[in-house]
Input
Amino acid sequence: MSKSKEISLIGILAAVNIASRIALQSLPNIKPVTSLIILSVIVFGLSFGIKLTFVTTIVSNIYLGMGIWTFFQIFAWIVICLLTQGVVDIFHKVKKEPPLLFMAVFSFCMGYVFGFIVSLEQFVVGGVGLFISYYSVGIAFDTMHAIGNFAFYLLCAPFFMKLFIKEKEHFL
Amino acid sequence: MNKQVKKYTTLYVTIIFIGIGMLGFFHSDSSQSYSSDVAHKSILTMEKSAEKKETSQQKEETSDKVSQPQKQQSSNQQPQSQQSQQSQKEETTSDVSSLIEKKEEVTLTILGINKTIGQENVEIEDGDSVFSVLKRYTTKHQISMKTSGYGSMIYVRGIGDLVEHEHGAGSGWVYKVNGASPNISAGNYEVSQGDVIVWEYIYSE
Output
């Protein structure tokens, strides 16, 4: 993939993420961002996912509010990218594409991973006590995020996977 | 190339996790001393506010049900004896009220500039906050109230004619429960039977 093609793809996908984050901010934590990042890591690889994460988080937080959590959101999505890459590598070792339902369940789990890492912000600020209380309050919201991921993955994956792979082959 | 990216990302993530862990445990240690600091400060402010209450009440010369227990509080400065007295007071009041009627009450006082705007025993329900008690009182007596925010983020800007910033830059409404000013919003502080709530207009001119 050429450099300019990569940049334009990152721009388009980041725009989708940012628009969805801003448009769906009234819904509690239900956003397609995590699903799209997982999809892009599966098709385009780890470095593409990380670049997409940076652009998405920084630009959307200009609208939603910048703070110490920006760093933790980026970090959480980088960890998700890394975990996804790990899972995909395991599947590639046995010469198989990751099945749809397995990855949907995986993105469901990633909702909790994201919530946990973003809650670590309170661990840094206030220690163990604050972290435990903050995280236990947020578990319901993490569940919403996880369910949203699951639904959006099943919704997006068949269509976007085809689109991404076509894009990749065309401009390799 | 992808393998290198993976390697460096793993390294980066591990380093950040170690950093978060170290910072977190550093703060866990210091948070204990921090909380004890806060407790110490709140005791100090309790004592101070009790002293202040005494002087302000001497000025106003309002002798009523509320001021007596507060004076008793302020006369002995040790927090432990204060607490025991409070609990005693609560016990006696609850005993009396259970004899007369089962409804729980708190005492609400609104202090303006050099005068008392209102004072009344207000009945409370389960889950009532300091703000909902004030709201019930003001709607009952048709006193206008200006607020901003909602829920646990509520902020009272004005009661009646007195609005914040009108009498000096630092003027505004503050509340006290049993002589101490809590560090949380009025919409978040749950009242309990026998509490003495004071809304006071702070001003400096």
About this structure: The CA atoms of residues 1 and 168 of chain A lie 7 Å apart.
